[in-house]
Write a structure and sequence with these properties.
Largest sheet of chain B: 2 strands, antiparallel
Strand order of the largest sheet of chain B: 1-2
CATH superfamily of chain A: P-loop containing nucleotide triphosphate hydrolases
Number of strands of chain A: 9
Oligomer: heterodimer
CATH class of chain A: Alpha Beta
CATH architecture of chain B: Orthogonal Bundle
Distance between the termini of chain B: 57 Å
Shape of chain A: globular
Strand content of chain A: 15-25%
Largest sheet of chain A: 6 strands, mixed
Order of helices and strands of chain A: HEEEHEEHHHHEHEHEEHHH
Number of helices of chain A: 11
């Protein structure tokens, strides 16, 4: 969509995310290599690729959770550690223990912790912000529910509310659409669009090829290296998908490409949520 | 023969006499028991949530070589060298477990078993080899005994007697635990629940992981005299585990764990008095009993509660 704004001041005008020649390895075997990426402000980037392509690894590397073998990552022109409060994170739903003794509001409040600093507890204002975030995902009435008593979709919405409570400029989301019901999927998309309208930048790991062209205006096709990256219409082609998925692109490809073609015809939003 | 298996239960000897005749002693012993299980339980809430219970067990066993080596080096049984030896042992344990896990295909549970049993064995060997030089009793380290804590050393504060030294020392550890809990509650909460999010918030999960491990070592070394390295794990796991069966909120679980610790100390003391047995043993039996009770009949999720509710539902919904 829009390229990064040039009217703003120095640090703000830096791209939300810039990755240069990034290589990440688990016990010497590289999982990602030679990744170059520049994400303009206000875009929704879908990270798409087969299993084991390194999609989650990329997200974790951006957040400094994994050691980087070579290359660098800059968030708003700075290393991750100096831009912490500008990043919001939605981890994969299975990555946490849902039996944990907290309720939905507690989880959303955690999104505020980054701004509190040491020794400080969430204030009344923080709680109000958390409640309004729960309202945005239509979960107000579940605020005091223990999180294991929520459905998968509701849990995902709590995670999304928590990311909203982080009030960040760049959001990293790891498979937010996995295992959610249609209502939740629609709710998530609505919020993504709203965030985009506010000038936030979103990077979303996604594995459903059929919906990818509808949801994202940019796509990063990943399979250990960048297969293709750019505007959805340019990237979502049969050759690129086949390059990324290899032989594994069979039944899916039919559906995906028919959807993709629809997108080229300019008929983009009719199937959303 | 059978009737002499257990001592006769006599209300007066079991519940009245300890307080009427040895009130002072009983008070300090029960207080010590409460401080030990309360502090262990407090740290234990997070140990359980982070699935570190087995690591806690490993640390407590590796304490044996830790304090033995500290004793051999300094030739004293003072708190500081013992504490440092225990902390060093605790860190060694955790580092070795992580190293084995990361650099081989051995899974964490097996790695824990390998590390703590070998360290523990080294401790046993050291104690037997240097038996004549060491004023440490393996049995004492293993089982501890609340009844034998030296109550005659009185700690003074500004010329005033405030209580037996070991009890005061444990009280200080308890106060530090509460202070740390208040200071770092939100960091501990978020790093336990979602380390990935914590990192994205600028809260380093590894730092808190090691911080907790370190403090766990301190708590264990402070407790082993009373309850021994084998049963200390009971004091770490039982209060929090029982509380988590009842409540859905962490702060409430912490309060409940303190309440349970008090019950263990008081009831365990009386059970031990009745059976003329180890107080730590008594406390642990009580802890196990209370856990069983709650597991069966907790208000929301107890096994029996669920059964009763289900049959009640069937009765009311069936035509």
């Amino acid at each position: 969509m829009q390229s990064s704004s040039t009217t703003q001041t120095n640090s703000k005008s830096a791209a939300p995310l810039e990755v240069h020649d990034l290589t990440v390895a688990y016990t010497k075997r590289p999982v990602l290599y030679g990744i170059d990426l520049k994400v303009p402000k206000g875009s929704i980037v879908g990270v798409v690729g087969p299993n084991g392509a390194g999609k989650s690894t990329l997200i974790k590397a951006i957040m400094g959770l994994l050691p980087v073998s070579s290359g660098w990552i800059k968030v708003f022109g700075k290393p991750f550690k100096k831009a912490v409060t500008r990043i919001g994170y939605v981890p994969q739903r299975e990555s946490v223990d849902w039996d944990f003794p907290v309720n939905a509001l507690d989880v959303v409040l955690m999104g505020r912790y980054g701004r509190l600093g040491p020794f400080k507890r969430p204030s009344k204002a923080d709680k109000e912000i958390a409640m309004s975030c729960l309202e945005k995902v239509k979960m107000t009435s579940y605020a005091t529910r223990q999180i294991s008593n929520l459905s998968g979709g509701q849990q995902q919405r709590v995670f999304l509310a928590r990311a909203l409570a982080q009030e960040s400029d760049l959001y990293l989301m790891d498979e937010p659409f996995v295992g959610v019901d249609a209502t939740t999927e629609a709710a998530i998309i609505e919020i993504l669009r709203e965030l985009q309208a506010q000038g936030k930048t979103l990077i979303v790991v996604h594995h459903d090829l059929t919906t990818a062209p509808e949801y994202f205006d940019r796509i990063l096709l990943l399979n250990m290296r960048v297969v293709a990256y750019g505007k959805t219409a340019d990237v979502f082609t049969f050759e690129n998908l086949q390059n990324a998925y290899g032989g594994r692109l069979s039944i899916l490809s039919e559906v995906a490409l028919s959807r993709a073609r629809k997108k080229f015809d300019g008929d983009t939003r009719d199937n959303v949520g | 023969m059978r009737e002499h298996f257990f001592p006769d239960f006599d209300w007066h000897t079991v519940f009245v006499q300890p307080w009427a005749e040895y009130g002072d002693n009983s008070f300090w012993i029960v207080l010590m028991g409460f401080l030990v299980s309360g502090t262990c339980g407090l740290v234990g809430c997070f140990v359980i949530l982070r699935r570190m219970a087995l690591v806690g067990d490993a640390i407590s066993h590796s304490l044996l070589p830790g304090i033995t080596i500290a004793f051999l080096l300094t030739n004293s049984r003072d708190t500081l060298p013992m504490m440092l030896g225990a902390i060093a042992a605790g860190i060694t344990t955790v580092v070795l477990i992580e190293a084995i896990r990361h650099s081989s295909r051995i899974k964490p549970d097996a790695a824990i078993g390998i590390v703590f049993s070998s360290l523990f064995a080294i401790g046993i060997i050291l104690i037997s080899v240097f038996a004549d030089k060491i004023d440490l009793d393996a049995e004492c380290v293993l089982y501890g005994e609340l009844g034998f804590i030296p109550l005659q050393d009185i700690a003074m504060l500004g010329g005033v007697e405030i209580g037996p030294e070991p009890v005061i020392r444990m009280a200080i550890i308890a106060v530090i635990a509460i202070g740390l809990l208040i200071a770092f509650f939100k960091e501990m909460l978020v790093t336990s629940f979602d380390p990935g999010l914590a990192a994205s918030l600028g809260i380093n999960p590894t730092r808190y992981q090691y911080g907790l491990t370190l403090f766990l070592s301190v708590v264990i070394v402070s407790s082993f005299e009373s309850v021994g390295v084998v049963l200390v794990i009971a004091m770490i796991i039982f209060p929090g585990a029982t509380a988590l069966l009842i409540t859905d909120r962490l702060p409430k679980a912490i309060w409940l764990s303190i309440l349970f610790s008090l019950l263990y100390a008081v009831l365990g003391f009386h059970l031990a008095t009745w059976l003329e047995a180890s107080i730590a043993g008594g406390m642990t039996v009580i802890a196990g009993f209370i856990f069983g009770l709650v597991w069966m009949a907790a208000p929301k999720r107890g096994l029996l509660t669920k059964l009763v509710k289900r049959s009640f539902k069937r009765e009311t919904t069936s035509p």
